[in-house]
Design goal:
The protein is 39% helix and 21% strand. By secondary structure, the chain is an alpha/beta fold. The protein has a seven-stranded mixed sheet with strand order 15-16-17-14-13-18-19, sandwiched between helices. Strands 10-9-8-11-12-20 form a six-stranded mixed sheet, with helices on both faces.
């Protein structure tokens, strides 16, 4: 069992009250961490004020070197982090190793960005009252960052918040998901080992009271949250005047046009629909298929799903592991029942597996009605739902017929149709001839509508973690 402390201003802190970490596959306790309190948050923020000044005193090159060291340490400890990810998240060991590799890349990218935070010469004399003025702007640290991360990618999504914060010379207070606090704490320990200022680093496991204390504190300047729309809406209403970055999930769609490579679309859709048991905000959930190829595509999709091995996530051959909790299995059953009652048809799967209480069979549901939760809500489950369309305009309307708008994938060889989606889909990203689950860690990643505000990716996160300061000189004075 792994028992880890919280970190407050770089110091390891224990508390008598614990949060148990449960292995989703067996429901066994595999770890514990202290349960933080709002008082712990207050102490961390007071320390962070000192951390801000210490970070500001470092050169960009020193920040770069220390972040590179974090990346190197993480790479050295790849297998330990991967196995811990399996035990706290339930993702397969292969998926866990991929997450560690991505986190190494995210931190490396952040290190590089620390050396090139931009400024620009301002052409003041482009305005009549600017004659005789010369100047520029540059970016400086916004201040203390409060970061809250979800359970599904506890390592890489933590890296996406705290590494750019350090690159921007901002101290952070981190609250990981109470379900998966182990790898975030382990990662912050590496930040300390790399020699970053202790006061700039705090990670406090806890529940809503800790999150509220972090996000509403008057001395916090930036709030970065990844999680549900419901919680994101609460945060947005209560934080006050702060910089806010929200990544709130989606029910991502794939469009399969009649001239698409159907085999490729089916293989990719299975890859994107069932990774981490579908518990990915850009997981393939809704597959919109042209009516001329609908039956053929469903046949190919079923064949690809039949190849998946589900069960023990520590087995090197497992493709689909458990969902995060037993309660999620109950919810998934309810959503499938609703869809079937309203006319949907189960193509394959549709029931829990006998291999563990939290393993759900990879499921394909055809002819899913628009008024079902599987169409308009975020399933976060190993389910993909297919629906026919007759024209690309109708497909775009179906994509937009939801409160979410993160990414959409489009399989087509028709350039005009591709551009119709690019120009009209209400999303933050359009992925042509691939699935919406594609994410490169250096790209501007984020959504519109209920999928949030702001963008992640080290370069773009740094924009949210910095403030612009303008300097003007009167050369005639």
């Amino acid at each position: 069992m792994k028992s880890l402390p919280m970190i407050i201003g770089g110091k390891k802190v224990d508390r008598p009250e614990k949060i148990d970490v449960i292995y989703p596959y067996t429901q066994e306790k595999i770890g514990e961490v202290p349960k933080g309190t709002p008082e712990d948050v207050e102490e961390a923020i007071q320390k962070a004020k000192i951390g801000l000044e210490r970070l500001k005193s470092l050169t960009s090159y020193q920040i770069y070197e220390k972040l590179l060291k974090v990346a190197h340490l993480l790479k050295e400890n790849r297998e330990e982090f991967a196995k811990t990810l399996v035990y706290e998240v339930g993702k397969t060991i292969r998926e866990a190793r991929t997450e560690v590799d991505r986190a190494v890349n995210t931190i490396t990218l952040s290190a590089e960005e620390a050396k090139r935070i931009p400024g620009e010469y301002v052409q003041f004399d482009a305005s009549p009252n600017g004659v005789g003025k010369r100047g520029f702007y540059f970016r400086e640290p916004a201040g203390i960052v409060s970061a809250i991360t979800p359970f599904n990618f506890p390592l890489n999504l933590t890296a996406h918040k705290i590494a750019p914060a350090i690159a921007a010379k901002c101290p952070f207070v981190l609250k990981p998901s109470e379900k998966t606090p182990l790898t975030p704490i382990m990662l912050c320990e590496l930040f300390l080992e790399a020699g970053l200022p202790e006061e700039a680093i705090s990670v406090i496991p806890g529940f809503a009271d800790v999150g509220e204390a972090m996000t509403t504190h008057k001395d916090v300047r930036v709030v970065s949250f990844t999680g549900s729309l419901k919680v994101g809406d609460i945060i947005a209403r209560q934080v006050g005047i702060k910089k806010l970055v929200l990544e709130l999930g989606s029910n991502s769609a794939v469009i399969v046009d009649k001239d698409a490579n159907l085999e490729l679309a089916a293989k990719k859709s299975v890859l994107g629909g069932f990774a981490i048991a579908g518990q990915v905000c850009i997981s393939v959930q809704r597959i919109l298929v042209h009516q001329d190829v609908y039956d053929e595509f469903n046949k190919l999709l079923r064949e690809e799903v039949s190849k998946l091995k589900f069960g023990d996530p520590m087995d090197e051959d497992t493709d689909v592991g458990p969902v995060i909790a037993v309660s999620e299995v109950e919810r998934i059953n309810t959503w499938i029942s609703e869809a079937v009652k309203k006319g949907a048809k189960i193509v394959t799967g549709g029931t829990p597996s006998k291999d563990g209480k939290t393993v759900f069979q990879p499921t394909v549901i055809a002819e899913v009605p628009e008024e079902t939760k599987l169409f308009y809500e975020e399933a976060f489950a190993p389910i993909v739902a297919t629906k026919k369309f007759s024209s690309i305009e109708e497909a775009v309307q179906l994509v937009n017929k939801t409160n979410y708008g993160l990414q959409v994938g489009v399989f087509t060889n028709n350039l005009k149709n591709a551009w119709k989606v690019i120009e009209n889909a209400e999303v933050g990203g359009v992925i042509i001839n691939d699935i919406p689950t594609f994410r490169a860690d250096n790209m501007p990643y984020g959504g519109v509508k209920g999928s949030g505000i702001g963008r992640e990716g080290p370069k773009f996160a740094i924009e949210d973690y910095t403030e612009i300061k303008v300097v003007a000189f009167d050369i005639n004075a």
